Amino acid sequence: MVLPAVPEIFEEELHSAVEARADTLQTLRELGPPDLVHLVKQPIKSTTKQVGIYHHVTGIDASSSASLAAYINTLTYSPHDKTYKVVSGLYCCYNAFSRLDMRVQVAIPGTVESYCIDERGDKRVATDDLWLETYLCSVLRAYSYADDGSGDTIKKIVGVRRFNPITSTESEHKFLDAAERLFFNGWQLGSDPEIQVPNLVSNHLTTGLLDYIHTTGRYASGINLFEKLRTRDPEISSLLARVYISADEEVKAVQLLHEAIQELPMDYSLLDCQAEFCEKKSRGDLALEIAKRSVVSAPSEFGTWARLAEIYVSLEQWDLALLTLNSCPMFTYQDKDAPRMPEPLRVHLPAMPETICDEIDDSNVDDLELVHPTLRKLHAAGFKGTFLKAYILLTEITKKIGWDQLLRIRSQVFVMEEEYRHEKQTISQQPGSRNASTTALRSPSPKTNGHGEVELSSPSSDAPNGDALTSEADDRHSIEKPGHTVASEIVKAGSDEPDQLHSATYTQFQNKRLCERWLDNLFMVLYEDLRVYTIWRTEMAQYRQQQLLYKKSAEEWEILGELAERLHHFDEAVEAYESCLSIRFSPKAMKGVLKLSEMRHNVRDVCGALIRLVTWQYRWYSEFSPALLYTIRKLIEEEGAVKVRSIIQGTSLPQHVLDLTHQYAALCAAFRSSGSDG
C-alpha cells in the first residue's frame, strides 16, 4: 500500500511530549492511547540546536523491540527535508494488561535499547511475556482507534498514522495465537461503555476479535479459535455461536446454543445471543421469554434490558417497551484513552501527491461556518453509549406509531406532573392516607441508582423558546410539546421483574410508574429533534412551491442530514448530505451517502462514495478503516471483483486516486483467496 506522508508536531520544549505521556500513565483505564513516536532532529551543519517532533501511530507490529526500531528507521530519511537529520528516536507503546509503557530507544547511528516504564515512572526490564501482551494490545488499539469513515475519530487526535495490523494469513495466525494465549486475561482490559462489568466474553479483547472476524470475513479462523477455547470454558459458546450465525451456519449455532444453555441455563450472554437470533427471525414470541430470563440473570446490565425492550417493540407492545426502557440501568460514558499533549510550537501536516484531489479537499473548511443556534443545540447528536442506544429505541417506536401516539402511551404508563399535583392535593386533604407511589414521590432523600446515571441537561431550558430555523415557520407548523413526567429520584435498576410487567389498566394513579429523569429528558430531546425536522421540511416545501433556492451552509446541511437519519427519514437524509457535498467535501456527509446507498443497493453510488472516503483517509495518514474494508469485502462478494473493479475504473476521478481504492480491494481479495473463508 501507498505509505502516507508523515505528520510532524513540533515541541515547544524538547522531550515535553514524552514527559506528558509518562505523567498520564496513572490515569489510563482502557486500552491506552495510540503509540507515540518521538524524534530528535538537528541541523545537518550544526550540532548545537536540537528540535523534538512527534506523531502518533496505530497498527505497527509491536511484538518485539526490533519491529518498533524498524519503524523508527523508516523515518530517518525524508526527501522533503534537506536541512535536518534525525539523531534519535523513541517509540512508546502501552501494555494495558500489565499497565506499562513499553519503550524502544534508537540512537542514529548507534544502539537500540528496550525497556518499560511503570505508572510511577520507574524503569523495568522488557520481557518476552510483556512483548506478547503489548503486541496484542497494539492490534486491539488499531481496531479501536480506526475511523468509521465519518472522520470523527481522525479529527479527534491530530497527526495519527493508521496502519492495518493484519494484512496476511501469517499475521492473522500471529494475532489469533496471542489472543488464545491471553484470552482468559481479557477482562483486565475493560469493556465497551454499555457493559457494566467486564467478564470472560464481554471485554475489549472479545470485541476486537469479533470486529476482526466481521471485517475480514475470516469465519473459519474465528470458529477454530473459539472451538479450542470452548473446551476450557463452556461460557465461550456464546462467542462461537455468534461467529456461526455470521458465517451462515445457523443450524450449528442453534444446536450449540441449545446444548450450552442446558449446561448453563442462566448465562446471560448465551440467552442474549439466542434471544437476538429469534428476534431477527421474526419470532418475537420465542425471543420474549428468553430475554426475560436474560434480564433475571443479569439485572444490572443495560444490554439485557435493552434487548427486552427491542423485543416488546417488535411485538408492538408499546407500553411494556417504555416500561422496560425505563428500567434500563444507565452508565456514564467512558471514552477511549486519548493522549494529552502540551501545546505544540507548530504542526506540519503534509499531503502525498497520490491523495491530492479537488473532490476530497476539505482544507477550506471554515471553523466559523454559519450555523443556526437551534441546530447547534440538538442534544441528540452528542449521545453516546447507553444513552444513544436508548434514544435509538425511542426513535424506532416514534417511527412506527407516531409522536402523538407515543405521548398518549407515555401518559398512560408514567405519572405526569399535572396529575401528581392533583393527587397530592387530594392526599393532603386526607391526612394519614398514603400509597406506594406518593410515598416514593415524597421521599426526602433522593438516591442515585449506583450505575453512574448521568442527568442530562434539559433542552427545554437551553433551546431558544419559540425560535427554530425561523419562528414564523414554527408558528405555522408545530408538533405537540410533551409535558414533563414526575421523574423518580429513587431508582432500583432491575427491581421490576419481567414477569411483573403486564398490560395493566393505567387509569389508576396507583398503577402508574415513576419515569426516570434521564428518560424524561430523552423525550424532550426527541421533541426538539422532531420540531426542527418538521420546520425544515415545511420550509423546504414552501421554497420549492415558490421556486426559490433554499440556502444553508455546508455544516447546516450536514447537521440536517444527521437529524433526518436519526429520525429514520433516509431519503431526506441523502438529500441533505448531497446538498452539503455540493458546497464542499465532508467525510461525515459522504459516509451518510455511502450508508444509505448500501441500503438502496445502489452499487455505483456505493463505489463512488468508497473511492472518495478511501482517498480522504489516505490524505489524513490512514490506510486502515474496518468499516470501509467491510463494505468493499461485501461488495466484492455480492457483485464480483471484476464488476467492482470496472465500476471503480469507470469513475471520473484521477487514476492515482482510483489506485488507492484498488489496493483496498486487492487486500480483501487476497484474504478471500487464502483459505476456506471466502
UniProtKB/TrEMBL annotation:
GO biological process: Golgi to plasma membrane transport
GO cellular component labels: exomer complex
Polar residues: compositionally biased ranges: 426-448
Region annotation (Disordered) ranges: 423-480
SUPFAM superfamilies found in the cross-reference section: TPR-like
Highest taxon listed in the record's lineage: Eukaryota
Database matches in PANTHER family: BUD SITE SELECTION PROTEIN 7-RELATED
This protein's name: Chaps-domain-containing protein
